Amino acid sequence: MISQAEIKLWVKVQEDKGIPVETVKNRLKNLVIETPSWGYADCGTRFKVYKQVGVPRNPYEKLEDAAEVHRLTGVCPKVAIHIPWDKVDDYSHLKSYANELGLGIGAVNPNLFQDDNFVLGSVCHPREEVRKKAISHILECVEIMKLVGSDVLSLWFADGTNYPGQDHIRKRKRYMLEALSQIYEALPENARMLIEYKFFEPAFYHTDLADWGMSYNYCLKLGERAQVLVDLGHHAQGTNIPHIVALLLDEGKLGGFHFNNRKYADDDLMVGTIDPYELFLVCNELIDGENDPATAECARNITYMIDQCHSIESKIPAMIKSVVNIQTAFAKALLVQRDALRQAQEEGDVIRSESILKDAFETDVRPLLALVREEMGLPQDPLASYLQSEYPKKILERGIGGQGW
Ligand code: PSV
Ligand code: MN
Ligand code: MN
After folding, report:
1. Rounded mean pLDDT for each run of 10 residues along the chain, 405 residues in total
2. Nearest to residue 187, comparing CAs of 223, 230, 212?
3. What does the DSSP 8-state code read for residue 224?
4. CA distance 391 to 388
5. Which CATH number describes the domain made up of 31-336?
6. Could you tell me how far CA 149 lies from the centroid of its own chain?
7. Nearest atom in ligand 1 to 233's CA
8. Could you tell me which of 74, 176, 167, 181 has the C-alpha nearest to residue 126?
9. Transmembrane region positions (predicted)?
10. Were both Cys, which of 102, 200, 223, 299 would link to 290 (CB 3.0–4.6 Å)?
11. In Å, what is the CA distance from 173 to each residue of 70, 209, 210, 213?
12. What's the angle, vertex CA 327, arms to CA 326 and CA 329, rounded to 5?
């Protein structure tokens, strides 16, 4: 528990440094972090799906768990859904159930990787009938968007090949554009299409949408409402993700962000657990983008989502931890003394520039987050509060063998 005296002292120290604490607090209060329905369900690795007692048995229970995360953190009012994992008979009912829980439905994600027909690809498959099937599934998701009130279609394609010569790369590239164009035309009026990339897995030779440049290329051809989605787990080791974020922001093409962490690949670990400095540097670019009139509009419209398939951790605690770690990184990014940094950069003072950034990263923001939560009527420590609540006991009634992939 952080005392009022500690909080007061923290505020004074920051104000003395010239940090606009009120502005910082407001930005933290307005942060929206969407959580994924699948992050509450059973998942695993390619070797095994681990079953946990108490995971949701249907999409409605996933929403209930997401509502619990929102109740404790105050910044997760939206839930992304994945079709058909979250298939229901009545999507309007799913929407009203979410609303009753104080939630809204966020991004709609088609599933283009689990149907046996998609073994050689979905929209890039060599056979026309399979490509058509993939497109019609995505168009079905567009219809679902209308029913659940979603304005984001989030696309990730597992398409690719395993061997040189397996298929014709340029032909597949054209198929991708044909499909995306057809889907773009069908988007609801105010909706955006986010195009995610990933350099490998499940394909191991070439992936049709392997990096930000490929996504960006399609987005440029499609139009304003097509934007790139950056997932922290989808790059080769050593890739400078903050640089990609900065570039896409400057081009007005950064539309979505998937938070997670990995040591080697993809999204298996809780956000901020392996490389909190990288997370901070990403948030630094995002906040810097918000402060720049040239990029502010794009930066303020980014959909922030957790995309995490933690498999050995308890579901809700892992989600809360990720949310808290994202808030921590954003809080630190908001403390960067941007004017001083600009000046040091312009003077070419390498040591001072790096130190200014590092100084913000090394600031303990727990008193700030405690204050923000207090002002939002939330518990200081959402995870401790969850663990002490009745909810973890209540969900045990669901038993084992809930939904999962
Ligand atoms: C597969 O890598 C993946 O994790 C992508 O990041 C998608 O966003 C997610 O699955 C949901 O389809
Ligand atoms: Mn993702
Ligand atoms: Mn992923």
Report:
1. 97 97 98 98 89 96 98 98 98 98 98 97 98 98 98 98 98 98 97 98 97 98 98 96 98 98 90 97 98 98 96 96 98 98 98 98 98 98 98 97 78
2. 223
3. T
4. 9
5. 3.20.20.150
6. 19
7. 6
8. 167
9. none
10. 299
11. 40, 9, 11, 13
12. 65
Helix orientation angle between 315-334 and 59-73, rounded to the nearest 10 degrees: 40
Question: From the CA of 155, which ligand is nearest?
Answer: 1
Cβ atoms of 346 and 56 closer than 8 Å = no
Task: Check: CB of residue 14 under 8 Å from CB of residue 335.
Answer: yes
According to DSSP, residue 170 is labeled H
The domain locations on the chain are 31-336
Tokens 């968007």 locate to 145
* 197 and 155 Cβ atoms separated by less than 8 Å: no
CA distance 149 to 143: 10
SS3 101: coil
User: Distance from the CA of 176 to the center of ligand 1, in angstroms?
Assistant: 18
Q: Is 109 in the pocket of ligand 1 (CB under 6 A)?
A: yes
Nearest atom of ligand 1 to the alpha carbon of 267: 4
What the block records as the tokens of 121 is 């690809």
Interface predicted TM-score (ipTM) of this complex, two decimals? 0.99
Q: CB of 196 closer than 6 A to ligand 1?
A: yes
* 266 CB near ligand 1 (under 6 Å): yes
Distance from Cα 109 to the centre of ligand 2, integer Å:
10
